[in-house]
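Appendix C: a fully annotated inverse folding record. The material below is reproduced so that readers can follow the format used throughout the book. The structure is listed first as tokens, followed by the designed sequence.
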């Protein structure tokens, strides 16, 4: 299961290392793409196929389908990790997530998010005081 939070430094040439715990589950080949709230999403090929299947019957004539495909698929890269789990963060994703010095990896069961440490810290400042309210909203959704 992909869970936990890890922080690493960004190395030379925009190289970062995926934590070993996540590598053991995701494998040595992953797909990374734009996420939401300015983070990057990391999935293995199985999860990527599952994501793509959600588009299966959606007509390309719908602008929301095209825009979601552009956002997620258009920004994606296939990554092969080296023996130490390192990879070069593609320039488009580095600029998108504004990752420069440190990254925080967040395991979210089925995928991993990569955040600039600064942005993650700010996001947590927003989430922390609102965690109970967010949980209540989820409960309301589940009761419907």
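Designed amino acids, in order:
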């Amino acid at each position: 299961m992909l869970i936990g939070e890890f922080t690493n430094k960004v190395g030379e040439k925009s190289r970062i290392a995926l934590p070993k715990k996540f590598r053991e589950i995701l494998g040595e080949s992953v797909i990374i793409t734009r996420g939401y709230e300015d983070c990057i999403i990391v999935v293995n090929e199985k999860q990527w196929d599952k994501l793509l299947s959600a588009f299966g019957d959606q007509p390309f004539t719908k602008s929301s389908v095209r825009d979601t495909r552009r956002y997620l698929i258009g920004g994606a890269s296939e990554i092969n990790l080296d023996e130490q789990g390192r990879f070069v963060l593609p320039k488009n994703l580095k600029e998108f997530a504004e990752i420069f010095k440190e990254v925080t990896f967040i395991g979210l069961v089925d995928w991993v998010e990569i955040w600039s440490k600064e942005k993650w810290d700010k996001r947590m400042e927003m989430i922390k005081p609102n965690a109970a309210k967010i949980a209540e909203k989820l409960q309301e959704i589940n009761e419907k």
